[in-house]
Amino acid sequence: xxxxxxxxxxxxxxxxxxxxxxxxxxxxxxxxxxxxxxxxxxxxxxxxxxxxxxxxxxxxxxxxxxxxxxxxxxxxxxxxxxxxxxxxxxxxxxxxxxxxxxxxxxxxxxxxxxxxxxxxxxxxxxxxxxxxxxxxxxxxxxxxxxxxxxxxxxxxxxxxxxxxxxxxxxxxxxxxxxxxxxxxxxxxxxxxxxxxxxxxxxxxxxxxxxxxxxxxx
Length: 217
What we know:
Blueprint: E1 10-11, E2 16-19, E3 28-31, E4 36-39, E5 53-58, H1 63-74, E6 81-84, E7 93-97, H2 99-106, E8 112-114, E9 125-129, H3 139-153, E10 170-172, H4 195-205
Parallel strand pairs: 5-6, 5-7, 7-9
Antiparallel strand pairs: 1-2, 2-10, 3-4, 8-9
Helix pairs in contact: 1-3
């Protein structure tokens, strides 16, 4: 997403993983040959948004999806406050649908891309989302938007087997939303974001996970 996520679908005896390439961010380099993500800046301090406030403007009719993802972060327990605004002049983040640019940046399987991790120097950043995520709000579209917003507030990809909306390769359908086309239910969004994601955000902004759902371990 607002960084790159890639890979092929993998099926295991314990869990089913659905591969999603989710974009390549500015401070992450993608090694195509090895299929790995290589941090370009190791140990760099993530620039945070003052007061944890991030204002978001949706340009292309994804406001239902984006506002749902923003609300999930705002209610997560981390002291981040993501709010939708009605004019681009008021926004810190512009959300666009631009498949041509998105595919050029991160490939044909890419669903999302964010142009920064944390607050950029000029205080303005962009999220690109795939046009296939348009339409009624559904679990997958919220998951992708939440991943990109995670990058915007300063989160890197989470490496490891634990449930995380910041996974670089795929979401785990055991803990993540399903691939249904129906509107997401509360249980399907229980791990958006997961406690491990909230803890990472809290390390930057303060707070603590508001809940620790066992499905998100």
